[in-house]
Amino acid sequence: MSEAALIDARGIHTYYGVSHILHGVDFVVRRGETVGLMGRNGMGKTTLLRSVLGLVRPRRGEVRIAGVDMTQAATHAIVRQGIAYVPEGRGIFPNLSVRENLVMAARPGAHGRRDWTFERVMATFPRLSERLTHGGAQLSGGEQQMLTIGRALMTNPDLLILDEATEGLAPKISREIWAIIGQIKQAGIASVIVDKNFAAVSAIADRVLILVKGSTVYEGSSAELRAQPDLHHKYLGV
Amino acid sequence: MDANTFLIQVLNGIQYGLLLFLVASGLTLILGIMGIINLAHGTFYMVGAYLAFSLSQHFGNLWLAMAGGVVIAVVIGLVLEWLLISRLYHRDHLYQVLLTYGLILIFEELRSVVFGDDVHGVAVPEILRVSIPLTETLSYPVYRLWMSAVCLVLAVGMYFLIQKTRLGMIIRAGAANREMVQSLGININLLYRLVFALGVALAAFAGMIAAPVASVFPGMGNQVLIVCFVVVVIGGIGSVKGAMLAAILIGLVDTFGKVISLEIGGVQLLPQLSGMMIYVLMAGVLLARPEGLFGKRA
Strands A190-194 and A34-38, how do they pair? Predict the structure, then answer.
């Protein structure tokens, strides 16, 4: 296994039409590391993730995935380096059953790992196992989020990207999702977590990155950031 | 109408419907999943019929002609998707209509250059050149029963592929959210190429098995295309199940529209207006369910 960072993006500039969204962002995720990506709405968090995944092309900058330059690579080739993406809004296939949503995604990981089987996903999300024949659209928000995380795990990823991990979920369900994210971290899978809940993100993340208007304004350990309440109030408070 | 005539018309209607299904299922998949309006789809039906005609003369055997024809159709589908159709995914429907209409003209011209503009016939294979007698004067050709059986097997195969296999799940997922499918590591371009080639092969195969009963003639694809769009609209865009039901419905309505005599207020409506029947059916379905029988509500 190479020791190169899973994601090593340098000097990313991304535009939507004429609007300049990202202004030279550096974004690194190493193996096994949990990174919190924070910032208010519209600051470029989702755009940064989409730029890394090739869903939108950065105009300048370089994206290396597991040591390989993939700046111009297709999305499917990028994620096959071991990345699983849970997008904002979750991206459940509403016309597929819960079982089909999981089975269609199954594949061995980047190094042929196959430890996340259908059975293991069922054991992690017992609630889904009771709903296997339901349509994806019939699930509650929390169940949908479990399904997308389960579907992501079916690809045996080295890195899980969760955009808006608990958005719109009731507190009790959110706590369940955070517990699951904790289990995933224990399993040695690196993750990038975007969420509004500073306390929850900083509790689990090894490192936090804050974006303001498409630039990185803070990068450091969660503990350091927690010790500077003025900082997170300035960049994240409403 | 006596029971035997009725039975024959039911068989004819179902056989026509099943044939339509082969063409329409590809059309609905290409439109529903890839978002491509493929006006050239009927042309592939014609290509199939001419392949059956020329290859059966070459091999002296319709079975070999069909096997070879399907291989050629798949290759045509893969090449066209790679060369032309793949450039249309991010473009407006107008570009799709223009390009695929251009394909109709090119294929018709090629057909005219290679085969001329005459009507050709294809012989029914010897083993199926029999009829089942129903009464002293009525009988039903075995070839038509064989056609229906083959179409049914393919329809069941399609159902199995789309509903039960992982490839089918991925294809359906692609219809719902293509970006998410890509984000799960699936090469959507390759998937689209396969779906397009499958659609072309089904349409061409329909043309091949229809050749012995429908003859082979210029412009034959365009008639089929229009009826198949009606099937897709009634069944609901992208729904293979809907296409199946709508195709059978249209097969029966069209067949019975031509043989039933209906007079209202001294005005003879059927069979005189039988050509309108399928459009009346479409209008009725659209009034009740604008998204088609199995379409997604917008």
Answer: parallel
Strand partners, A25: A12
The pLDDT value given to residue B298: 53
Q: Which residues of chain A does B296 touch, with a Cβ-Cβ cutoff of 8 Å?
A: 95
Tokens of B186: 């699936």
Say yes or no: ipTM exceeds 0.90. Answer: yes
Residues of chain A with pLDDT under 70: 1-2, 238
Q: What pLDDT was estimated at residue A229? A: 84
pLDDT for position A103: 96
Instruction: Please report the domains of chain A, with CATH numbers, ordered by start residue.
Output: 7-236 (3.40.50.300)
**What is the enclosing helix (H) or strand (E) of A84?**
strand A83-86
Q: Cβ contact (<8 Å) for B182 and A55?
A: yes
Chain B residues inside the 8 Å CB shell of A74: 182, 187, 189
Q: What pLDDT is attached to residue B297?
A: 61
Residue A5 contacts by C-beta under 8 Å, 6 or more apart in sequence? A28, A29, A30, A31, A64, A66, A67
Measured between CB atoms, does B265 come within 8 Å of chain A?
Answer: no
| C-alpha span between B110 and B98 (Å, rounded) | 18
Residues of A with CB under 8 A from a CB of B: 53, 55, 74-77, 79-80, 84-85, 87, 91, 93-96, 100-101, 103-107, 151, 155
Residue B271: cis peptide before it, omega within 30 degrees of 0: yes
pLDDT at position A238 is 57
Q: How far apart are the first and last CA of chain A?
A: 43
Do B169 and A103 count as a contact with CB atoms less than 8 A apart?
yes
Sign of CA dihedral B247, B253, B257, B258: positive
**Structure tokens given for B294:** 């199995």
Secondary structure (DSSP) of B196-209: HHHHHHHHHHHHHH
Helix (H, G, I), strand (E, B) or coil at B213: helix
Q: Which of A93, A103, A107 faces B185 most closely, judged by CB atoms?
A: A107
Note the pLDDT of residue A1: 47
Unique residue bearing structure tokens 């069944």: B235
| pLDDT < 50 regions, chain B | none
Q: Closest chain A residue to B238 measured between Cα atoms?
A: A95
